[in-house]
Structure formats: structure tokens, C-alpha cells
């Protein structure tokens, strides 16, 4: 059944000129049509089939041509040889037409014309026009005489046959041209695919691998030493950023991409040997068909091994340096306070010592921020939650911020209840308020105003710190809580800071099961809102 179906499809492609013309098939069909014309003519008038009349000679020519088409070794003959067949067909049609009855044989000229146009392009079309004119139209005019009917046939047949031949030859040229363009584009894409320094994978809509470039084959050898079956979601030596937790099937980037997900910068380690394993950052994009339906996915794997190793070294370095700094700082702090408790010092010395004390506190906070940041990936923030009067904590922070605000000519207003008890880590929450408040003051203009509020909303404690200062652009808002991020405005105005406060603030809030949000408009001010569960 399948075989028969295939043959029928093959025949259709030949008859509709989709494939290169097959002389045996086309000539066979032509001979059948030719014979049909004569048979139908004979049905009306038996004399039409008299042996020796021109139409029957034409039939004989057609049959001989048919046999020739079937046995000639076309693949060994020069290309133009096959062109003789349609020309002979036109001659046979000419013979068929030099008959009083005429019949509809003229329309059959379209078959050799299409054949010539399809196989030999424009040159074939010219031959078709010349052939129909001199083998068909002119002889019939000479033989049958110059009547109106004959003239009309003699003109129209070459015109229509030529039209068909030119139409098919132009259509073919256009198909070839666009095929060339597509082939060229494919070669360019292939060159890009293989030259980029990024592993690339193309998936089809069912998650089967459609293409993998050489760069990615290296990564796959590390991740799947046993081999890969070419389907999305296969498990292998693929680990999370910690280097030990293996990816589950649902987490595998190929699996997610094959379900239509798009993502950016999923980090992973591939391979188990610490010396040869590589760190990769994976991104994915959907591929859609013309109707917008999911048609597959493209994944890019960037080698970020050096970057990940550098990050680790940096974190270890920062952690150890800040750890080492803490001990001498504690000692300086202690001695400065001992000194400050003495009453026999001249007042200017006491004032200078107070500056030392203030800066020691700042330095201590910076060092502990750095230490926390360096360790943040390994240990989640530890908080000790106890019943705490948050209102008192906030008031304390506002009071402590007073001198800095006064220096910056920023006023602070406070909207806090008498008491507000919540189960929180008092020290950590003071750090949150300090960070938000010091930012609000730092990023305000002279004469600016900062509003601090505390209240409850359902079972949540809500802390707000708002300013009318520089504000933050929408693009920056998304990255505000990442380590070491600072806005361009902060950098440009050389406002002191390192970009750690907000990332730490966020981890503290989240360790309490809360959330922090920011609303802001560039140039108009910012409002940070912290929501915490009160229990
Ligand atoms: P730092 O203040 O030390 O730079 P933070 O992590 O506290 O670090 O803040 C990160 C960045 O966010 C700041 O550098 C600043 O650009 C921006 N920012 C924070 N708070 C505000 C604010 N209230 N107004 C405008 N920009 C702010």
C-alpha cells in the first residue's frame, strides 16, 4: 500500500512538472492523449482513421517517439537530446491538424510547450513558440487554406502554447532564485553556528535535538560521558552553582526550554572532575511558527568557568580580609570609648575622639557588611526573633541619624505609634532602618525631607521610609537589591557608598519572612516599604 502510494505521488510530481521531466512518462501521456483525440474523431467519422492519412502518420510518429523515450539512455546523452521529443510531438500535432476535421489536437500543443519550458527554461519556451508556429500553424494554413477559422487557430495556438512555456520557465527561475537565497542563508547560519564561542542547541517542538554545534559537543561530553540520546531533559553530570546538587529533570534547561520557557543566565556546572568541569550560563529563546505557535527552542551555553572561579576567590578574599579587620577594629573601638569616658581630656581632644569613634562605628559596619556579603551564598541570614518594641527601635534610629541629617540639611519627620510589639530580631531591624534612613538622607538634596512611618496592616507590620530626593529610574529599580549595585546618579554625584546596604536589608527582611518594595520616580524621590509578619 505504502509502495503504491509512493508511486502515485511520484507520478503526480512528474505530471504536474514538480520534478525534472521524465521523457518516458511525458511521452507516454502525450501518446495516450493523441490516440484519444483520433479515437474520438473516428467515433464521428470512421474515415478519419484511414491508414495513410496525416493524423495516422502522426500517431505512428508518436508511438515511435514513445518507444524511443522508453529505451534511450537519457542520462548518458547530452541534455538537449531529450528536447527532440517534445519537438517531434509538435510535428505529430502538425500532422494531426492537416485534416479537414481538425479536432482539438491543437490544445495538445500545451503539453510539449510546458515540457520545453520546464526542462530548458526560456530557451525551451522560444523553441516551443517556433515549433508550434512552423510545425503546426504554418503547415495547417498552407494545407487547409487561409480561412478565418484556420487563421484564428494558427495564431492562437502558438500564443497560448508559448504563454504556458514562458510562464512555467519564469516560475521555475523564481523558485531557483529563492532556493539559492535560502541555501546561501543556510550556509551563513551554519558558519555562525560553528564559529561563535558559545555552545548552541536547537530543539524541535517535541524536545528532540535538531542541531548542536561543535562547541557544545565538548560540553556534552563532560555532562553526558555515557552518551546522549538527543532528547531534552536527559539527566547527567549537571550540577547547581554549589557544584554538588544535581539538576532534576524539571530543572534541566533543555527540558524547560522544550516546554516553551524562556530564561536567562541559569548557572550550572557540567562534569564531575574538579579540574576539567566547566561552569556554564544558559539562556533560552522560543522559536515560533508563522501562527505564533511553539515550534522549538534555541539554547545558548556560555562558558563562565573563569568568572565563577574569580567570584569564589573574591568572596573568600573579602571574607578573610574582613574577618581579620574585625579584631583590631573591636580593639580600637574599645579603647576609644575608654578614652571618651575620661573627664580630664581637653574638650578639643574629646571632640576629635568622637570623630574617631563615629568613623570606627562606620568602618565596623562596613566590615560586617562585607563579611556578610561574602558569606551570603553559603549561609542564609541568621535572625533571632524576640518580642521587640519596633517603635522604640525606629525612634532610636531616627535619633541616631539626626546629626548626619542636620549636616546634610535634611529634615526627618516621624509617624510612629507609642509602641508596636513584633517578633523580630531587634539588632537586625535596627540595621534595616539605619540603612534605609541613611540612604534617604544621603540621596536627598539640601533642604530635602524624609518621612519615616511605622504601622500595621492586617497581620503585617509596615515600615515606610520616603524621601523627595534623587529618585531611581525604572531600569535601576530592578537591580537595586543586587550586591555592589549603585545608580549612575549616586556615582556621578560621588555620594559615599559601596552598594551593599540594600542587598543586606533585603536578606534581613526576607529572613523575617517579609518583603521589601520600592516606589520611585527619577528626580522626584523614593519610598521604600518593608512588610513583615508581626508574629
Ligand atoms: P550604597 O548606598 O552604599 O551605595 P545601597 O545598597 O544602600 O548602597 O544602595 C544601592 C544604590 O541604590 C545606591 O548606590 C543608590 O544609587 C540607590 N539608592 C538607594 N536608596 C536610594 C534612595 N533613597 N534614593 C535614591 N537612590 C537610592
TrEMBL record:
Annotated Histidine kinase domain residues? 320-535
The residues forming the signal peptide are none
Location relative to the cell: Cell membrane
Q: Which GO MF terms are attached to this record?
A: kinase activity
Q: What is its EC number?
A: 2.7.13.3
Reactions accelerated catalytically: ATP + protein L-histidine = ADP + protein N-phospho-L-histidine
Name of the featured protein: histidine kinase
Q: Which organism is it from?
A: Nocardioides aquiterrae
